[in-house]
């Protein structure tokens, strides 16, 4: 039996980071997105930050106009970003926490603590036909808040687990992975579609792809970093192969029960 495919969303933010380090137009995030699609990406993710440190408004407009796959706009849940999303009409919007001083998105959105502000913005985006996800920690409290806010999707933050794996902290990594496993099951039981992302490399992507509840991974930094050595297309094909191995392992396990 063929294992069901897990979707890969490729985040092109750090292609723009390299471009902005020097200025000018190269490397172009749109070209990176087109290479990613040709190599097997199912969608493209781009985070329009409030300070525009990497992706810019023009990048988003060009991605939306020219992509042949869904565009997922990562964004803070602010009035400015909601207005831009309503004008741009991406396929999806992933609401994430954002602090000016952070290097990248750190931790999940406190959906429970911000529910009163989040819920009307989720409704507004959803009414415009934009599929909303909340980027949250693998915590039942945050899953309940996602349901209460009316978001159809959660993206589970995998960064803490990935950092523990990279550091060789076996017990910590195991405990964090078990949190993700439980959260994925509980999210699906609540009627939420389950995505995952942050800090994933082929090893961790293979492991998390074995969770049948997870239908999409969003990965950026490892792919862009590896592209320096092997090219973006090769990095994406390597990642897709790892994800498929994880899916096939899960199918074999299920068939053996």
TrEMBL record:
GO MF term set: pyridoxine 5'-phosphate synthase activity
One GO process term, biological-process aspect: pyridoxine biosynthetic process
EC class: transferase
Residues involved in 3-amino-2-oxopropyl phosphate binding: 11, 22, 199, 220-221
Site (Transition state stabilizer): 155
Active site: 47, 74, 198
Keywords: Cytoplasm, Pyridoxine biosynthesis, Transferase
Catalytic activity: 3-amino-2-oxopropyl phosphate + 1-deoxy-D-xylulose 5-phosphate = pyridoxine 5'-phosphate + phosphate + 2 H2O + H(+)
Compartments where located: Cytoplasm
Involved pathway(s): Cofactor biosynthesis; pyridoxine 5'-phosphate biosynthesis; pyridoxine 5'-phosphate from D-erythrose 4-phosphate: step 5/5
GO CC term, one of those recorded: cytosol
Residues given in the record as 1-deoxy-D-xylulose 5-phosphate binding sites: 13-14, 49, 54, 104
Enzyme Commission code(s) on record: 2.6.99.2
Function per UniProt: Catalyzes the complicated ring closure reaction between the two acyclic compounds 1-deoxy-D-xylulose-5-phosphate (DXP) and 3-amino-2-oxopropyl phosphate (1-amino-acetone-3-phosphate or AAP) to form pyridoxine 5'-phosphate (PNP) and inorganic phosphate.
Subunit record text: Homooctamer; tetramer of dimers.
Family, similarity comment: Belongs to the PNP synthase family.
Protein name: Pyridoxine 5'-phosphate synthase
């Amino acid at each position: 039996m063929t294992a069901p495919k897990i979707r890969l969303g490729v985040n092109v933010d750090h292609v723009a980071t390299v471009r902005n380090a020097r200025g000018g137009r190269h490397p172009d995030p749109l070209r990176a997105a087109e290479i990613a699609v040709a190599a097997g990406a199912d969608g493209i993710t781009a985070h329009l930050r409030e300070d525009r440190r990497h992706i810019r408004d023009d990048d988003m407009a060009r991605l939306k106009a020219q992509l042949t796959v869904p565009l997922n706009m990562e964004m803070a849940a602010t009035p400015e970003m909601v207005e831009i999303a309503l004008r741009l009409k991406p396929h999806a919007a992933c609401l994430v926490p954002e602090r000016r001083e952070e290097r990248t998105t750190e931790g999940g959105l406190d959906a429970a603590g911000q529910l009163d502000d989040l819920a009307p913005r989720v409704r507004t985006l959803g009414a415009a036909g934009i599929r909303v996800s909340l980027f949250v920690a693998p915590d039942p409290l945050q899953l309940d808040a996602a349901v209460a806010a009316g978001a159809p999707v959660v993206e589970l933050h995998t960064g803490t687990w990935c950092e523990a794996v990279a550091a060789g902290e076996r017990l910590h990594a195991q405990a964090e992975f078990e949190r993700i496993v439980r959260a994925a099951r509980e999210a699906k039981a609540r009627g939420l579609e389950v995505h995952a992302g942050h800090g994933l490399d082929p090893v961790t992507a293979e492991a998390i792809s074995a969770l049948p509840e997870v239908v999409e991974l969003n990965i950026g930094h490892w792919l862009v970093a590896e592209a320096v050595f092997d090219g973006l297309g090769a990095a994406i094909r390597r990642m897709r192969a790892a994800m498929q191995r994880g899916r096939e392992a899960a199918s074999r396990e299920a068939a053996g029960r």
